[in-house]
């Protein structure tokens, strides 16, 4: 799936079940240059795995966010729209708000703008319309992982 760019992937599992460990190699192995990789993750500056990805892919500091904020994400989305011919990767490792209109816009239109999207959640209590926008959903548990 992740070889077919652009793609949309949703990873769901409690803390420490391997969501970030699963997505980091996908980002590292992608042919998307670091200048076109954008990360939204509260622990991005504290987790050495993120630091390694940032260094290896040479992801600019302006492409790293520590919180999903609607106004900043709207600005980021507009920034991504400036270069639709370039492939981009957006990683939302932050439980993005399911009711956010900005998140819905990103999830529903990213593929037609050549943007791959990976989003993670620790839990999903009920199906929201935004979930239907993802072509791949992977669930993680402490016992085993399943699609």
Number of helices: 4
Provide the gyration radius in Å: 14 Å
What is the helix fraction of residues, given as a range?
A: 25-40%
Mean pLDDT: 87
CATH-assigned fold name: Rossmann fold
Which residues form runs of ≥5 with pLDDT under 50? none
Domain module tally: 1
CATH architecture: 3-Layer(aba) Sandwich
Q: Strand order across the biggest sheet?
A: 3-2-4-5-1-6-7
Main sheet attributes: strand count, strand direction, barrel closure: 7 strands, mixed
Measured between the Cα atoms of the first and last residue, the distance is: 12 Å
The helix-and-strand class reads alpha/beta
Principal-axis shape equals globular
Number of β-strand runs: 7
Question: What is the fourth-level CATH superfamily?
Answer: P-loop containing nucleotide triphosphate hydrolases
Relative strand content = 15-25%
Q: Could you explain how this protein is built, in words?
A:
The chain is an alpha/beta fold and about 150 residues long. The chain is built from 4 helices and 7 strands, in the order βαβαβαβαβββ. The chain has helices spanning about 20-30, 50-55, 70-80, 100-110; strands at about 10-15, 35-40, 65, 90, 115-120, 135-140, 145. The protein has a 7-stranded mixed sheet with strand order 3-2-4-5-1-6-7, with helices on one face. Helix 1 (about 20-30) runs parallel beside helix 2 and helix 3 packs parallel to helix 4. It is globular. The mean pLDDT is about 85.
């Amino acid at each position: 799936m992740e070889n077919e760019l652009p793609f949309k992937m949703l990873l769901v599992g409690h803390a420490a079940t391997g969501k970030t460990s699963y997505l980091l190699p996908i980002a590292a192995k992608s042919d998307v240059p670091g200048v076109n990789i954008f990360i939204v993750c509260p622990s991005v500056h504290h987790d050495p795995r993120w630091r390694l990805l940032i260094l290896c892919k040479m992801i600019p500091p302006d492409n790293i966010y520590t919180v999903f904020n609607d106004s900043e994400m709207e600005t980021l989305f507009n920034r991504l729209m400036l270069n639709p011919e370039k492939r981009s990767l957006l990683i939302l490792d932050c439980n993005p708000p399911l009711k956010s209109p900005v998140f819905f816009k990103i999830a529903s239109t990213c593929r037609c703008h050549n943007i791959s999207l990976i989003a993670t959640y620790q839990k999903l209590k009920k199906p929201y319309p935004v979930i239907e926008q993802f072509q791949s959903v992977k669930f993680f548990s402490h016992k085993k992982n399943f699609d």
